[in-house]
Fold Agmatine deiminase.
Amino acid sequence: MLSWPGRDSDWASLLDAIETTFITLIEVITRYQHVLVTLPDDSTRRRLAMTLTNLGVPDNRLSLVIAPSDDTWARDHGPLSVIEHDTPLLLDYRFTGWGGKFPAARDNALNKALADQGIFKPGLHNLQQVVLEGGAVETDGCGTLLTTRSCLLNPNRNPHLDQADVGKFLEEQLGIHRVLWLENGYLEGDDTDSHIDTLARFCDEHTIAYVRCDDKSDSHFEALKAMECELKSFQRADGEPYRLIALPWPRACLDPEDGHRLPATYANFLIINGAVLMPSYADPADHAALKALSEAFPTRDIIPIDCRQVIRQHGSLHCLTMQLPAGSLNAINP
């Protein structure tokens, strides 16, 4: 699932460039699986349908649906999903623009808008009493969840919930048995209060890929070194240590307008059917990142996607997308 950038969004001044990135992303993903794109209006839908048809994207791998949003970060406003008795269940948590930092009313209403149009086959489970973004949680699919205290326990999300309360709702609603809490790790330019998907990711139930900064002069060095030590101390459910794969540190990416640092990270990769899409930044570290992810995912194609425009709005590849399990969508024509 992707949410197309609108002309009234923060992408307005970069619209042509970010649309090119979106089109590339859709074309690549549809080589492997279906894509649902939510769009602001019918004229955008018709224009995109023509563009994708001309690129050879098959109609049967594409659903273009009108459902306006405030922004494009489907990872955080899209539905989280679990499998219950072999059936997908889509969960609609409340999205508040990362603790009220940005307008989010349309983003928060988007999942219901899709459900009301009959897009979701299993329907939608309303959990709007809890604020939760998809980028804040990373699971191994076997009951273990990895997250950061700075986000999930931030009082700007659920001030009425303490750590025990958060653990309880994660267990009851997501089937989580263990939570691994990171105390350290951040990226300059990040608006999310340190989403885990910018820092460390499960590759399988035994393996975690994480960002490592080897430059002692970099402002991130101490925090990411401390995060690495935490990851080394974590144990799997069977008591064994995790296999850790370090992802390289790109050179500082600076905004061309005001020079502030942008949150470039290779941890924001996207796992799809048969492939892993890797954010790239036209940086010498791109090659090392590709090699590391090839080690982490030896049976999948590793495909770089240029994300230099995406990080201009402080996210990257994984942030733009939300996976949906097979059986989630009703058939929708472009």
User: Anything to note?
Assistant: The domain at 2-320 is CATH 3.75.10.10 (L-arginine/glycine Amidinotransferase; Chain A). The longest helix spans residues 15-29. The first strand starts at residue 2 and ends at 3.
